[in-house]
Design goal:
Elements (H helix, E strand, L loop, with lengths): L1 H32 L31 E7 L2 E11 L4 E7 L5 E5 L5 E6 L2 E8 L2 E8 L4 E8 L2 E3 L8 E3 L3 E8 L2 E4 L3 H5 L7 H10 L9 H12 L26 E2 L2 E2 L12
Antiparallel strand pairs: 1-2, 1-5, 2-3, 3-4, 5-6, 6-7, 7-8, 8-11, 9-10, 11-12, 13-14
């Protein structure tokens, strides 16, 4: 009988020890990767620069800004993110349960897009290659920018330090699930239906738009204008903004005759 009681006691101890151990392991996992494995599941960011390197690897600055990420249909807001355009990774910064800051690379497995500051991005696969693109426009046709940086040895005399380039931009138009590159105003116009080329030329001229250099807001309104050329018989060649009706993913957010909420172009609200 005593042997049976001891066996029972030992089994209970092992059972409850297993529960405690499992809880501790869960806490450890939560400490490193955060509370939601859908977004806090990337590897730790370990890219460190040599001392004296000029510039930085980021899209705008080294500062992590409050942004929005959409992963597998779920939107995460109020989180600190940054975009490393040299390594092409989206970074998430948070404090673990001890209060220590952690930086991880957001997994691209189910990543759909993100907004950082005044810029909205989507993770787009095209012809077997997936890349981050800044998206401008809310209609059927959009301008895409792919950003990158290079790291080179400073060529000045007596200098042996590395320096990042300024952000480098490649320009594209996305229409009907196809992506086309352009490098000039003429190359930009050729990408569209010949029926609308005169209207597009007039719009560019009247609004003094250079498709390679104009501000994001101007290019977004241009693409909304082009997307709507087929909807209306006559559209005046002036800047029209449809950004209050659509979000970054091209979804109509208006309800009835009113709005679900004011969404300016630069907010890039992700639903």
């Amino acid at each position: 009988m005593k042997t049976f009681n001891r066996s029972l006691l030992l089994s209970c101890l092992l059972f409850f020890s297993g529960i405690v151990l499992s809880q501790e392991l869960y806490k450890e996992s939560d400490k490193v990767y955060g509370p939601d494995p859908l977004i806090y599941n990337g590897k730790k960011y370990t890219y460190f620069l040599p001392s004296g390197t000029g510039g930085n690897q980021f899209f705008q600055s080294e500062e992590f800004l409050e942004g929005v990420i959409k992963v597998k249909g779920k939107t995460f807001t109020g989180i600190k993110i940054n975009y490393d355009i040299y390594n092409q990774v989206l970074l998430l910064k948070y404090d673990d349960e001890t209060g220590a800051p952690q930086i991880i690379e957001v997994s691209e497995a189910w990543l759909e897009g993100f907004s950082l500051g005044q810029s909205g991005f989507r993770y787009i696969e095209f012809k077997g290659e997936s890349r981050f693109y800044q998206v401008l426009g809310s209609g059927s046709q959009k301008v895409l920018y792919h950003w990158r940086k290079t790291l080179k040895l400073n060529s000045s005399v007596g200098n042996s330090q590395f320096m990042f380039s300024a952000p480098l931009k490649s320009n594209y138009v996305m229409a009907e699930d196809e992506i086309y590159s352009y490098g000039s105003k003429g190359g930009f116009i050729k990408l569209f239906d010949p029926v609308h080329k005169t209207a597009i030329k007039n719009y560019l001229r009247d609004n003094r738009i250079n498709p390679k250099k104009s501000p994001d807001k101007v290019m977004a309104d241009l693409m909304d204008y082009i997307s709507n050329l087929e909807k209306y018989e006559e559209v005046p060649a002036r800047i029209i903004s449809y950004a209050d009706h659509y979000d970054l993913f091209g979804e109509d957010i208006s309800i009835g005759s009113g709005y679900a909420g004011h969404v300016s172009f630069y907010e890039y609200t992700i639903h």
